[in-house]
Amino acid sequence: MPAVTADTLTLPRIAGPQAAETERTVKAVTTGPRGYEGEGFPVTRAFAGVPAADLDPFIHMDQLGEVEYAPGEPRGTDWHPHRGFETVTYMIDGRFQHQDSHGGGGVIENGATQWMTAGSGILHIETPPAELVESGGTFHGVQLWVNLPRKDKFLNPRYQNLEGAQVKLLSSADGGALVRVIAGDIAGHEGPGATFTPITFAHATIQPGAQLSAPWNPAFNALVYVLSGSGTVGAEGRPITQGQLAVLGRGDRITVAAANAQESHRPALEVLLLGGKPIREPIFQYGPFVMNTKQEIIEALQDFQSGAFGQIPTDGLRPFHGR
Protein backbone atom coordinates (compact mmCIF):
# COMPACT_ATOMS: atom_id res chain seq x y z
CA MET A 1 0.00 0.00 0.00
CA PRO A 2 2.31 2.78 -1.22
CA ALA A 3 0.00 5.85 -1.24
CA VAL A 4 2.18 8.68 0.13
CA THR A 5 4.68 7.89 2.87
CA ALA A 6 6.92 10.07 5.05
CA ASP A 7 9.02 10.04 8.18
CA THR A 8 6.48 10.94 10.86
CA LEU A 9 9.24 12.34 13.10
CA THR A 10 9.73 15.23 10.65
CA LEU A 11 6.05 16.19 10.32
CA PRO A 12 3.81 18.57 12.29
CA ARG A 13 2.27 16.75 15.26
CA ILE A 14 -1.43 16.68 16.09
CA ALA A 15 -1.68 17.76 19.74
CA GLY A 16 -3.22 15.33 22.19
CA PRO A 17 -6.63 15.72 23.86
CA GLN A 18 -7.39 18.84 25.89
CA ALA A 19 -9.33 18.75 29.16
CA ALA A 20 -12.37 20.52 27.71
CA GLU A 21 -12.66 18.24 24.66
CA THR A 22 -15.19 15.42 24.37
CA GLU A 23 -14.22 12.12 22.77
CA ARG A 24 -16.79 10.76 20.33
CA THR A 25 -18.29 7.40 21.16
CA VAL A 26 -19.38 4.73 18.66
CA LYS A 27 -23.03 4.64 17.58
CA ALA A 28 -22.68 1.60 15.31
CA VAL A 29 -20.19 -0.61 13.44
CA THR A 30 -21.24 -2.18 10.14
CA THR A 31 -19.47 -4.58 7.78
CA GLY A 32 -19.55 -3.72 4.08
CA PRO A 33 -20.66 -6.50 1.71
CA ARG A 34 -18.57 -7.41 -1.32
CA GLY A 35 -19.81 -6.87 -4.86
CA TYR A 36 -18.77 -5.83 -8.36
CA GLU A 37 -18.93 -2.51 -10.20
CA GLY A 38 -18.57 -1.32 -13.79
CA GLU A 39 -17.23 -4.04 -16.06
CA GLY A 40 -16.59 -6.32 -13.12
CA PHE A 41 -14.02 -4.97 -10.68
CA PRO A 42 -14.48 -6.03 -7.02
CA VAL A 43 -15.69 -3.51 -4.45
CA THR A 44 -16.68 -3.36 -0.79
CA ARG A 45 -19.88 -1.35 -0.27
CA ALA A 46 -18.65 0.63 2.71
CA PHE A 47 -21.92 2.42 3.55
CA ALA A 48 -24.34 -0.50 3.10
CA GLY A 49 -26.95 -0.66 5.86
CA VAL A 50 -26.08 2.73 7.38
CA PRO A 51 -28.96 5.23 7.77
CA ALA A 52 -28.72 8.16 5.36
CA ALA A 53 -28.97 10.62 8.26
CA ASP A 54 -25.73 9.24 9.73
CA LEU A 55 -23.92 9.53 6.37
CA ASP A 56 -25.11 13.03 5.37
CA PRO A 57 -23.48 14.75 3.41
CA PHE A 58 -22.02 11.52 1.99
CA ILE A 59 -24.10 9.25 -0.22
CA HIS A 60 -22.03 6.25 -1.24
CA MET A 61 -18.52 4.82 -0.88
CA ASP A 62 -16.83 1.81 -2.46
CA GLN A 63 -13.45 0.40 -1.56
CA LEU A 64 -12.08 -0.61 -4.97
CA GLY A 65 -10.09 -3.83 -4.61
CA GLU A 66 -7.63 -4.50 -3.00
CA VAL A 67 -6.87 -7.00 -5.76
CA GLU A 68 -3.82 -8.34 -7.59
CA TYR A 69 -4.82 -8.70 -11.23
CA ALA A 70 -3.33 -11.20 -13.64
CA PRO A 71 -2.56 -9.96 -17.20
CA GLY A 72 -5.77 -9.18 -19.06
CA GLU A 73 -7.94 -9.02 -15.92
CA PRO A 74 -8.11 -5.30 -14.94
CA ARG A 75 -11.52 -3.72 -15.49
CA GLY A 76 -13.08 -0.27 -15.16
CA THR A 77 -16.28 1.45 -16.25
CA ASP A 78 -17.51 2.57 -19.66
CA TRP A 79 -18.88 6.07 -20.30
CA HIS A 80 -21.74 6.96 -17.94
CA PRO A 81 -23.52 10.09 -16.62
CA HIS A 82 -23.69 11.86 -13.25
CA ARG A 83 -25.67 14.82 -11.89
CA GLY A 84 -26.15 16.50 -8.53
CA PHE A 85 -23.07 15.51 -6.52
CA GLU A 86 -19.27 15.11 -6.52
CA THR A 87 -17.27 11.93 -7.08
CA VAL A 88 -13.94 11.55 -5.29
CA THR A 89 -11.64 8.76 -6.50
CA TYR A 90 -8.59 8.18 -4.29
CA MET A 91 -6.09 5.76 -5.82
CA ILE A 92 -4.00 4.15 -3.09
CA ASP A 93 -2.18 1.60 -5.24
CA GLY A 94 -2.26 1.09 -9.01
CA ARG A 95 -3.38 3.32 -11.88
CA PHE A 96 -6.71 4.51 -13.29
CA GLN A 97 -7.49 6.78 -16.23
CA HIS A 98 -10.28 9.36 -16.24
CA GLN A 99 -11.84 11.40 -19.02
CA ASP A 100 -15.03 13.46 -19.07
CA SER A 101 -17.23 15.38 -21.47
CA HIS A 102 -16.10 18.77 -20.10
CA GLY A 103 -12.38 18.39 -20.80
CA GLY A 104 -11.21 16.91 -17.50
CA GLY A 105 -8.99 13.87 -17.39
CA GLY A 106 -5.69 12.23 -16.64
CA VAL A 107 -4.09 9.30 -14.87
CA ILE A 108 -4.43 8.92 -11.11
CA GLU A 109 -2.00 6.67 -9.26
CA ASN A 110 -0.31 5.94 -5.94
CA GLY A 111 -1.89 8.46 -3.59
CA ALA A 112 -3.46 10.84 -6.13
CA THR A 113 -7.10 11.92 -6.04
CA GLN A 114 -9.50 12.76 -8.86
CA TRP A 115 -12.21 15.14 -7.67
CA MET A 116 -15.06 15.58 -10.14
CA THR A 117 -17.97 17.92 -9.50
CA ALA A 118 -20.76 16.52 -11.66
CA GLY A 119 -23.04 19.46 -10.89
CA SER A 120 -25.52 20.08 -13.71
CA GLY A 121 -24.43 16.98 -15.60
CA ILE A 122 -21.37 15.25 -17.01
CA LEU A 123 -20.34 12.09 -18.84
CA HIS A 124 -17.16 10.31 -17.81
CA ILE A 125 -15.20 7.09 -17.99
CA GLU A 126 -12.81 5.46 -15.52
CA THR A 127 -10.69 2.64 -16.87
CA PRO A 128 -7.27 1.07 -16.28
CA PRO A 129 -4.58 2.12 -18.79
CA ALA A 130 -3.81 -0.34 -21.58
CA GLU A 131 -0.38 -1.13 -20.14
CA LEU A 132 -1.91 -2.16 -16.80
CA VAL A 133 -4.43 -4.39 -18.57
CA GLU A 134 -1.59 -6.05 -20.48
CA SER A 135 0.67 -6.56 -17.46
CA GLY A 136 -1.80 -6.96 -14.61
CA GLY A 137 -0.90 -5.61 -11.18
CA THR A 138 -2.26 -4.22 -7.94
CA PHE A 139 -5.48 -2.20 -7.92
CA HIS A 140 -6.67 -0.51 -4.72
CA GLY A 141 -8.58 2.69 -4.18
CA VAL A 142 -11.73 4.35 -2.90
CA GLN A 143 -14.59 6.17 -4.58
CA LEU A 144 -16.67 8.50 -2.42
CA TRP A 145 -19.83 10.36 -3.45
CA VAL A 146 -20.35 13.75 -1.75
CA ASN A 147 -23.80 15.29 -2.01
CA LEU A 148 -24.38 18.87 -3.15
CA PRO A 149 -27.07 21.03 -1.55
CA ARG A 150 -30.05 22.04 -3.68
CA LYS A 151 -28.50 25.45 -4.40
CA ASP A 152 -25.37 23.86 -5.90
CA LYS A 153 -26.78 20.89 -7.83
CA PHE A 154 -26.65 22.77 -11.14
CA LEU A 155 -23.14 24.14 -10.81
CA ASN A 156 -20.95 23.96 -13.88
CA PRO A 157 -18.99 20.67 -13.81
CA ARG A 158 -15.45 20.91 -12.48
CA TYR A 159 -12.43 18.59 -12.34
CA GLN A 160 -9.57 18.65 -9.83
CA ASN A 161 -6.45 16.52 -10.15
CA LEU A 162 -4.79 16.27 -6.72
CA GLU A 163 -1.40 14.61 -6.91
CA GLY A 164 -0.21 12.60 -3.93
CA ALA A 165 2.56 15.10 -3.20
CA GLN A 166 -0.06 17.83 -2.65
CA VAL A 167 -1.75 16.24 0.38
CA LYS A 168 -1.06 17.70 3.79
CA LEU A 169 0.99 15.27 5.90
CA LEU A 170 0.69 15.19 9.69
CA SER A 171 1.83 12.93 12.52
CA SER A 172 -0.03 11.78 15.61
CA ALA A 173 1.09 13.01 19.01
CA ASP A 174 2.98 9.74 19.64
CA GLY A 175 4.59 9.76 16.17
CA GLY A 176 3.07 6.37 15.39
CA ALA A 177 0.50 7.50 12.82
CA LEU A 178 0.84 9.22 9.45
CA VAL A 179 -2.20 11.30 8.43
CA ARG A 180 -2.76 12.40 4.83
CA VAL A 181 -5.31 15.24 4.71
CA ILE A 182 -6.87 15.24 1.24
CA ALA A 183 -9.66 17.74 1.87
CA GLY A 184 -10.86 19.79 4.80
CA ASP A 185 -9.03 20.59 8.01
CA ILE A 186 -7.43 18.62 10.83
CA ALA A 187 -5.86 20.55 13.70
CA GLY A 188 -5.64 23.70 11.57
CA HIS A 189 -3.92 21.95 8.65
CA GLU A 190 -5.86 21.97 5.37
CA GLY A 191 -5.80 19.50 2.51
CA PRO A 192 -5.68 20.60 -1.15
CA GLY A 193 -9.21 19.54 -2.18
CA ALA A 194 -11.64 22.40 -2.83
CA THR A 195 -15.16 21.36 -1.81
CA PHE A 196 -18.59 22.97 -2.14
CA THR A 197 -19.95 20.96 0.79
CA PRO A 198 -17.77 21.43 3.91
CA ILE A 199 -16.10 18.06 4.62
CA THR A 200 -12.92 16.47 5.95
CA PHE A 201 -11.41 13.48 4.13
CA ALA A 202 -8.15 11.91 5.35
CA HIS A 203 -6.23 8.62 5.17
CA ALA A 204 -4.26 7.51 8.23
CA THR A 205 -1.68 4.75 8.65
CA ILE A 206 -1.40 3.75 12.32
CA GLN A 207 1.48 1.51 13.36
CA PRO A 208 0.88 -1.47 15.71
CA GLY A 209 0.24 -0.27 19.26
CA ALA A 210 0.03 3.39 18.23
CA GLN A 211 -2.94 5.71 18.64
CA LEU A 212 -4.33 8.60 16.62
CA SER A 213 -6.39 11.20 18.47
CA ALA A 214 -7.55 14.00 16.17
CA PRO A 215 -9.70 17.07 16.82
CA TRP A 216 -12.94 16.98 14.82
CA ASN A 217 -15.34 19.76 13.92
CA PRO A 218 -18.29 19.32 16.33
CA ALA A 219 -20.70 20.45 13.58
CA PHE A 220 -19.58 17.54 11.35
CA ASN A 221 -20.63 13.92 11.44
CA ALA A 222 -17.78 11.43 11.88
CA LEU A 223 -17.09 8.11 10.13
CA VAL A 224 -14.07 5.81 10.37
CA TYR A 225 -13.62 3.15 7.66
CA VAL A 226 -10.97 0.42 7.91
CA LEU A 227 -9.13 -0.21 4.65
CA SER A 228 -6.94 -2.89 6.23
CA GLY A 229 -5.69 -4.09 9.59
CA SER A 230 -7.44 -4.10 12.95
CA GLY A 231 -7.71 -1.96 16.05
CA THR A 232 -10.19 0.02 18.12
CA VAL A 233 -12.19 3.21 17.65
CA GLY A 234 -14.02 5.71 19.85
CA ALA A 235 -13.81 6.67 23.48
CA GLU A 236 -14.83 3.14 24.53
CA GLY A 237 -12.24 1.38 22.33
CA ARG A 238 -14.70 -0.54 20.15
CA PRO A 239 -12.97 -3.31 18.09
CA ILE A 240 -12.92 -2.70 14.32
CA THR A 241 -11.33 -4.50 11.41
CA GLN A 242 -10.95 -4.49 7.63
CA GLY A 243 -14.12 -3.60 5.68
CA GLN A 244 -15.93 -2.17 8.68
CA LEU A 245 -17.34 1.34 9.15
CA ALA A 246 -17.76 3.02 12.52
CA VAL A 247 -20.39 5.75 12.86
CA LEU A 248 -19.50 8.05 15.74
CA GLY A 249 -21.71 10.22 17.91
CA ARG A 250 -21.32 13.84 18.93
CA GLY A 251 -18.11 15.35 20.26
CA ASP A 252 -15.02 17.20 19.14
CA ARG A 253 -12.36 14.48 18.97
CA ILE A 254 -11.88 11.09 17.22
CA THR A 255 -9.62 8.34 18.60
CA VAL A 256 -8.42 5.32 16.61
CA ALA A 257 -5.81 2.85 17.87
CA ALA A 258 -4.02 -0.01 16.10
CA ALA A 259 -3.88 -3.46 17.64
CA ASN A 260 -0.43 -4.52 18.89
CA ALA A 261 -0.39 -7.46 16.48
CA GLN A 262 -1.30 -7.10 12.79
CA GLU A 263 -1.28 -9.68 10.00
CA SER A 264 2.09 -10.07 8.29
CA HIS A 265 0.79 -8.88 4.91
CA ARG A 266 -1.03 -5.93 6.55
CA PRO A 267 1.60 -4.44 8.84
CA ALA A 268 -0.41 -1.40 10.00
CA LEU A 269 -3.98 -0.21 10.55
CA GLU A 270 -5.14 1.80 7.51
CA VAL A 271 -8.25 3.93 8.01
CA LEU A 272 -10.20 6.70 6.31
CA LEU A 273 -11.49 9.55 8.48
CA LEU A 274 -14.61 11.14 7.01
CA GLY A 275 -16.93 13.87 8.14
CA GLY A 276 -18.94 16.79 6.86
CA LYS A 277 -21.60 19.33 7.62
CA PRO A 278 -24.99 17.63 7.15
CA ILE A 279 -27.09 19.15 4.35
CA ARG A 280 -30.40 17.91 5.80
CA GLU A 281 -32.35 18.07 2.55
CA PRO A 282 -34.49 15.39 0.91
CA ILE A 283 -32.53 12.95 -1.27
CA PHE A 284 -33.97 11.21 -4.31
CA GLN A 285 -31.41 8.97 -5.99
CA TYR A 286 -31.68 6.99 -9.20
CA GLY A 287 -28.41 5.32 -10.11
CA PRO A 288 -25.88 8.03 -11.05
CA PHE A 289 -28.31 10.92 -10.40
CA VAL A 290 -28.72 12.38 -6.89
CA MET A 291 -31.40 15.05 -6.65
CA ASN A 292 -34.04 16.27 -4.21
CA THR A 293 -37.24 15.11 -5.93
CA LYS A 294 -38.51 12.43 -8.30
CA GLN A 295 -39.37 15.10 -10.87
CA GLU A 296 -35.75 16.27 -10.87
CA ILE A 297 -34.65 12.69 -11.58
CA ILE A 298 -37.06 12.52 -14.54
CA GLU A 299 -35.62 15.80 -15.83
CA ALA A 300 -32.06 14.47 -15.38
CA LEU A 301 -32.89 11.41 -17.49
CA GLN A 302 -34.45 13.59 -20.18
CA ASP A 303 -31.45 15.94 -20.22
CA PHE A 304 -29.04 13.02 -20.44
CA GLN A 305 -30.96 11.45 -23.31
CA SER A 306 -31.10 14.79 -25.16
CA GLY A 307 -27.32 15.24 -24.98
CA ALA A 308 -27.33 18.09 -22.45
CA PHE A 309 -24.55 16.43 -20.42
CA GLY A 310 -22.11 16.82 -23.30
CA GLN A 311 -20.77 14.41 -25.87
CA ILE A 312 -18.20 11.64 -25.74
CA PRO A 313 -15.09 13.04 -27.47
CA THR A 314 -14.37 11.54 -30.87
CA ASP A 315 -10.97 10.43 -29.55
CA GLY A 316 -12.40 9.49 -26.14
CA LEU A 317 -11.10 6.65 -24.03
CA ARG A 318 -12.66 3.23 -24.43
CA PRO A 319 -12.36 0.20 -22.14
CA PHE A 320 -9.35 -1.90 -23.18
CA HIS A 321 -9.50 -5.67 -22.73
CA GLY A 322 -6.12 -6.67 -24.10
CA ARG A 323 -4.96 -7.97 -27.42
Automatic annotation (TrEMBL):
Matches recorded under InterPro entries: Pirin, Pirin_C_dom, Pirin_N_dom, RmlC-like_jellyroll, RmlC_Cupin_sf
GO molecular function, one term: metal ion binding
Pfam families: Pirin, Pirin_C
Cofactor note: Binds 1 Fe cation per subunit.
Keywords, comma-separated and alphabetical: Iron, Metal-binding
Transmembrane intervals: none
Descriptive protein name: Pirin
